[in-house]
Here is the input.
Amino acid sequence: MVVCLLIDQNQVPEWSWKYSLVMDEAALEQFFDNLIANDSSKVEDEEELTEEEEVCLSLLPDELLTPYETRQKNTDDTRQTAENDTRTGLNCTCLDYSSQNSTQVSEVPGVLSLLEQRGSCICPTTSMMPVKIQNVIATVKLGCRLDLNIIAHKARNVEYKPKTFRGLIMRIREPRTTATIYESGNIVCSGANSEDQSRVATRRYARIVQRLGFPVSFLNFKIQNLVATCSTFPVSLERLMLAHHQHCSYEPELFPGLFCSVIPGITATIFASGRLTLSGAKKADEMYKALDTIYQILSCFRRQ
Here is the structure.
């Protein structure tokens, strides 16, 4: 039973009913805060959205995620441990990695083991040059024809403008890559920093398309191009051009870099500062061998 009392505000002190009004508002705010915090429907909606996001951007754990994430974690742990050991053993000694005398570096304990453990980003056969893979371009066939209009309407993070470009562009955040998907079922993936990342990314794109109802297969995955960069030492590009004019192209008025194709299928862009960009290799081993050969050539044209 609820009893309502009608009280004239004139008969009650002003400070009393104002204080009561403030207390009621504070109680209501606290009540609604607790209600929102304990609202299970909102939490379930957020969890469902998170799971849906994972479905769109993930693959089966036994296919990809476990090997890739495990390898990434082991690589990070190995790098951190090796760096700590090297700092302790060398007492922060600075080494000249661009020097032609590699015996100074090889005699220091712990350095070679550190470089070998960093095999993905350091090439131990290129006279201690730190090499970084900037881009990996890979292709794969899905084995079926695709309706790009359906993919454009149902998938996330896509761009499709058939009047200007016949391919559909799709992006994912992990690994951060971009794919161009064609109606024939071919995918071109770019932006990965390693061969493993490129394979993971292409399989994720294939999985996204498969979840849209297409009978997708994963066929003929190939690395088409590796792009890597490294820094050496200042080089005299004019002398290099005169000595290897049959394999080099140098037009300083148009572009400051020298294009060198000593190794068939692989092109090196060399700048006077010693900055080097290598493209055209399809395997990491090919790239490292090419860098080793180019380094030996550049050593003869080192600028003092």
The domain at 232-299 is CATH 3.30.310.10 (TATA-Binding Protein). The chain has a mean pLDDT of 73. The longest helix spans residues 61-90. The chain is about 45% helix and 20% strand.
